[in-house]
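2024-03-11 09:14:02 INFO worker-7 job=invfold-0412 stage=load source=structure_tokens
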């Protein structure tokens, strides 16, 4: 009888409808690298060079941008194991500062930040896929939008069908991205070995096309930050990571330095074959690079970039849908978005919302001009989150922290953050101001949708009916709590 009861207990545990822990160390590294390396390294070099004003300063911006990400990721490693919840910035800020601040981050991310980033990556994918067919002109507007939409829809279906499929795609395409960038770096090193490094000589590299200002350097950092965005995305899926207290920090410490090295070497390779003027005139840097150096094999570049951006779209869909899932679980979004499929254990409603929001942004118009805008909101959320770490250190000094970084690390990050945002506001007040306005529009939404508890009965009936219809359509239900995880969290809190 004892063995039979144990078998039944194990069967019930296996049948429990919950988010599955299927992200090991390799997949965790793939999520970070795959989310960082998307369209940014093929779009941002032009913007970084334009604002930096010289080759040398632009390379310094790329290296320092990676260093800042390392500081930030170390802080996020502490937060990720101290507050072991999926949802990243949103979950930490909500836990530390309360519902309103967390909701404002969630509002700006769901409304504009992640849909716009996904749209930019999807458009880059479409442009590079269609580039070989339109070598002497830009691909048609409608064709790029249609192909980008098809790509987003296909990857949404994959993510709805299986977590394993989504992580395997991320693993495979992350390797593909590194191989593509490795090809660029290898060809660039060959060029340097043949003596083509005039643009990299210090006497030439620091010849400024314009007088550098702190404001322009801040904008160069914002452009680079778009290419580095995604370094914190593993924190969005903490609850699906195997042994997060070990694998979360390990994945961060492996991935960020690797990406920084790859990005810096890729930019050096670009400058080994292109003058600054050629790079600024190019709408597709990697294609121009391939046409100059690969000859009849130049078609490899657009295909490589397409593979890179395809994996980037998959990674952003995977992680941003978990943000919607976490927000709904806290009661800040409709409860339907906190439900998962009965068999596949995937957050289908949240994935569909991310997909729909991205397609809307794709239909609105050109999104590449929004890079500064999206980067500003990104950096704003990073700074608020790391300020939360400092506040938590003071408020709860005895809280169990499996990882505890030196206090100078979050302080150094916050100093950089304040300087960057201040000069960004000074240089681009309209862009940054609009970002603040959109974030603050969430205040009345929060008070009406979340804070106001005693709503009229007909509103509750209407939302219940919508939830019921959504459940029937998507075949979803609320995930059950993992008893082992709950016991771990309870024991941690009791020691606080």
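2024-03-11 09:14:09 INFO worker-7 stage=emit residues=496
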């Amino acid at each position: 009888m004892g063995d039979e009861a144990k078998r039944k207990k194990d069967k019930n545990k296996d049948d429990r409808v919950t988010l599955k822990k299927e992200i090991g160390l390799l997949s965790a590294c793939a999520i970070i690298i795959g989310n960082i390396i998307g369209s940014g390294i093929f779009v941002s070099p032009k913007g970084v060079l334009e604002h930096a004003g010289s080759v040398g300063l632009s390379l310094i911006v790329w290296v320092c941008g990676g260093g800042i990400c390392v500081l930030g990721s170390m802080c996020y490693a502490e937060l990720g194991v101290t507050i072991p919840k999926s949802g990243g910035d949103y979950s930490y800020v909500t836990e530390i500062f309360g519902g309103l601040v967390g909701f404002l981050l969630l509002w700006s991310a769901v409304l504009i930040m992640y849909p716009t980033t996904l749209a930019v990556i999807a458009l880059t994918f479409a442009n590079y896929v269609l580039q070989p067919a339109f070598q002497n002109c830009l691909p048609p507007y409608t064709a790029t939008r249609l192909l980008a939409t098809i790509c987003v829809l296909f990857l949404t279906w994959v993510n709805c069908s299986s977590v394993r499929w989504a992580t395997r795609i991320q693993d495979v395409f992350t390797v593909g991205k590194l191989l593509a960038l490795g090809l660029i770096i290898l060809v660039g090193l060959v060029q340097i070995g043949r003596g083509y490094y005039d643009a990299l000589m210090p006497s030439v590299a620091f010849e400024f096309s314009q007088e550098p200002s702190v404001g322009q350097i801040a904008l160069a950092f914002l452009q680079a930050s778009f290419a580095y965005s995604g370094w914190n995305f593993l924190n969005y899926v903490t609850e699906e990571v195997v042994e997060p207290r070990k694998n979360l920090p390990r994945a961060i410490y492996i991935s960020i330095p690797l990406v920084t090295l790859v990005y810096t070497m890729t930019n050096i390779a670009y400058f080994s074959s292109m003058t600054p003027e050629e790079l600024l005139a190019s709408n597709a840097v990697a294609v121009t690079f391939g046409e100059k150096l690969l000859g009849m094999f130049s078609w490899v570049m657009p295909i490589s970039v397409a593979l890179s951006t395809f994996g980037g779209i998959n990674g952003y869909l995977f992680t941003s849908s978990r943000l919607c899932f976490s927000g709904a679980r806290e009661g800040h979004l409709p409860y339907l978005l906190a439900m998962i499929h009965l068999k596949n254990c995937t957050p289908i409603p949240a994935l569909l919302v991310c997909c729909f929001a991205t397609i809307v942004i794709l239909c609105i118009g050109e999104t590449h001009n929004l890079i500064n805008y999206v980067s500003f909101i990104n950096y704003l959320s990073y700074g608020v989150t790391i300020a939360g770490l400092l506040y938590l250190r003071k408020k709860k000094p005895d809280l169990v922290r499996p990882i505890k970084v030196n206090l100078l690390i979050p302080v150094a990050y916050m100093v950089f953050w304040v300087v960057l945002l201040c000069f960004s506001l000074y240089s681009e007040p309209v862009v940054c101001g609009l970002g603040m306005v959109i974030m603050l529009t969430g205040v009345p939404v929060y008070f009406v949708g979340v804070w106001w508890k005693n709503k009229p009965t007909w509103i509750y009936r209407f939302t219940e009916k919508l939830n019921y219809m959504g459940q029937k359509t998507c075949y979803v239900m609320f995930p059950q709590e993992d008893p082992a995880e709950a016991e771990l969290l309870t024991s941690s809190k009791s020691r606080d």
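2024-03-11 09:14:09 INFO worker-7 stage=report msg="Residues 1-16, 483-496 have pLDDT under 50 and may be disordered."
2024-03-11 09:14:10 INFO worker-7 job finished
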